[in-house]
From TrEMBL, chains A, B:
<dbReference type="Pfam" id="PF13377">
    <property type="entry name" value="Peripla_BP_3"/>
</dbReference>
<dbReference type="InterPro" id="IPR028082">
    <property type="entry name" value="Peripla_BP_I"/>
</dbReference>
<dbReference type="Pfam" id="PF00356">
    <property type="entry name" value="LacI"/>
</dbReference>
<feature type="domain" description="HTH lacI-type">
    <location>
        <begin position="1"/>
        <end position="51"/>
    </location>
</feature>
<dbReference type="GO" id="GO:0003700">
    <property type="term" value="F:DNA-binding transcription factor activity"/>
</dbReference>
<keyword id="KW-0238">DNA-binding</keyword>
<dbReference type="InterPro" id="IPR000843">
    <property type="entry name" value="HTH_LacI"/>
</dbReference>
<dbReference type="InterPro" id="IPR010982">
    <property type="entry name" value="Lambda_DNA-bd_dom_sf"/>
</dbReference>
<dbReference type="InterPro" id="IPR046335">
    <property type="entry name" value="LacI/GalR-like_sensor"/>
</dbReference>
<keyword id="KW-0805">Transcription regulation</keyword>
<keyword id="KW-0804">Transcription</keyword>
<dbReference type="GO" id="GO:0000976">
    <property type="term" value="F:transcription cis-regulatory region binding"/>
</dbReference>
<protein>
    <submittedName>
        <fullName>LacI family transcriptional regulator</fullName>
    </submittedName>
</protein>
Length: 339, 339
């Protein structure tokens, strides 16, 4: 229909869509006007067979991730879908058995049967088989999370260290000196990064970190036990690696008749729904997840369009949201700062 | 390759895949063995052009929904993907401007360009244009949520009234008589259903509901204000339409030096992550969202395979999770029940 309308051959219309450089500008313009007038959209299945592109981006939904990621995942997924859709791509959501060969088999199946053009990977880890498979097949991918990524890869991540450092800066400004860090057991990229931000900021403020680092699994009760010794030792503020850990801190404070926000300042991480539901409201570090979703699609499209471009990495800054749990000047502030 | 291997024509192979009834059983068996031996999988784009089926199920991700649905959506989406994948279908995630013509245009575009086979709709509402469009085009869909569905449609929902009734049964069993309901403003299908469960259970236990129904928007602070008058009036238990409302109740209790779980029992709804992070742990009604995801796919596949079948509806029962906020026998239990 488009060919007839613009008085060219069907091959010329196909070239206009897929290799516009091959046409004379005036011919291209004529075909474009006809396409617009007829509201012609090539059917994706027909285009897939011709161009071997499905315009699908694969995204594996994982249940294991939801401890950390769950409550806020919706924002990420919505931004991802919106950005992909704007560029004419769809997000193909799929489940796979996490880890091991069965997982990579699933990726291979999607490449074979659906010609998925590219993937966005979350929760990559050391020993993850997925990046290797995709590299071998020359399939573009972007990792959200940089801990298993190589320098030669595209990734998007949130600067966790910046978030915990911002918390320390804020607390030091309120007069706190003994600022503890409540993290997860060492060994996770995300957790170690958040600890590093605290440690470096403490040094910058010339504050000692000795005895101020405690850890627990991401569980309220484990966190409660991990921090209870800190308060008799004079700790007046706690920066936690997650909101769940921070709320364990609330419990320990209440158990010892201390009041979060008044007697001891508490800052969490992730700004989950739970943070705002607590009393006092929990201060927390908010990750820019909509921006992260958009950035993942942006890097992926750049890679699809230019497979040999330099790898690009985007590190986004999180934002400290100050609420009542860390809003007031320290109660037992020493007469002279630093003492 | 398959045709050569099994000594039949390519058309016969195509029939074996798409219209197996046309073949003699022994021929079908021969082709099947070859397919298995060669590990042949038809490419989806080729199959789409032939059968006009993309084996894609569309799912619109909405941000508006996340107040209620967000924290637990991950479970629903994972179950949806897993069930669809097992049946050879993919979930196409997409964003659309909520409501109005732009939204239905997006659905029409996905039908035109991607030949999406079917849709799962969430957050349907009275006046929703999507079901009408899909009915007109003869596109199978299943609604998760029954409030705008017609009797002639397939839907899956969770029996909210059963959940709040279970909460009343439990509280009445502990000796509570003045059990209030803290709901949203009237007019939402979901909210009114949860209220109905409370009301009917109260009547069943021969308890008065007079003055025991209060409402607030889904916000901790609005909820706190809505309930503060209840406790001086002798209310000893509150059933809330959401966890956020229930946690507003915690605030009101603390403000008046009452202790949730000891002085007044509180039950929420949704069993969000926040429920377990609070002290005392919040009792809450848990929706079976994995089962809901699986049921949506099950109904959709049945409809795709048999377009003229009777409409089917699946109403799932939620489960009351009893935690410390509603675990103990009422403190000021009257000497004789009913007084």
């Amino acid at each position: 229909m488009v060919a007839q309308h613009s008085g060219v051959s069907p091959q010329t219309v196909s070239n206009a869509l897929n290799s516009p450089d091959l046409l004379a500008p005036e011919t291209l313009e004529r075909v474009r006007r006809s396409i617009e007038k007829l509201d012609y959209r090539p059917h994706q299945a027909a285009r897939s067979l011709r161009t071997k592109s499905s315009r699908l981006i694969g995204f594996e939904i994982q249940l294991t991730a939801f401890g950390v990621f769950g409550p806020v995942m919706a924002n990420f997924l919505h931004a991802l879908s919106e950005s992909a859709n704007e560029a004419g791509y769809g997000i193909l959501l799929f489940a796979a058995p996490a880890g091991g060969e069965e997982e990579t088999d699933r990726y291979a199946e999607l490449l074979r049967e659906r010609s998925v053009d590219a993937f966005i990977l979350t929760n990559t880890y050391r020993g993850d088989r997925r990046p290797g498979l995709l590299r071998k097949r020359g399939i573009p991918f972007v990792a959200f999370g940089r801990w298993s990524a190589r320098d030669m890869e595209d990734w998007v991540d949130v600067d966790g260290a910046h978030g915990t450092a911002a918390a320390v800066d804020h607390l030091a400004g309120l007069g706190h000196r003994k600022i503890a860090f409540l993290g997860w057991p060492r060994g996770s990229g995300v957790g170690d990064d958040r600890e590093r931000g605290w440690r470096e900021a403490m040094l910058r403020h010339q504050l000692s970190v000795r005895g101020l680092r405690v850890s627990a699994t991401d569980d309220v009760d484990a966190a409660r036990k991990a921090v209870e010794g800190l308060f008799p030792a004079g700790v007046t503020a706690v920066v936690a690696a997650s909101d769940a850990l921070a709320l364990g801190c609330y419990r320990a404070l209440r158990d010892s008749s201390r009041m979060p926000g008044r007697d001891v300042a508490v800052v969490g991480f992730d700004d989950s729904a739970a943070a705002r539901l607590h009393s006092p409201d929990l201060s927390s570090v908010r990750q820019p997840l909509r921006e992260a979703g958009r950035s993942c699609v942006q890097l992926l499209l750049a890679r699809i369009n230019e497979p040999l471009r330099e790898p690009e990495q985007i590190l986004l800054r999180p934002e400290l949201i100050v609420r009542k749990s860390a809003a007031s000047v320290i109660a037992n502030r020493p007469a002279r700062p630093g003492i």
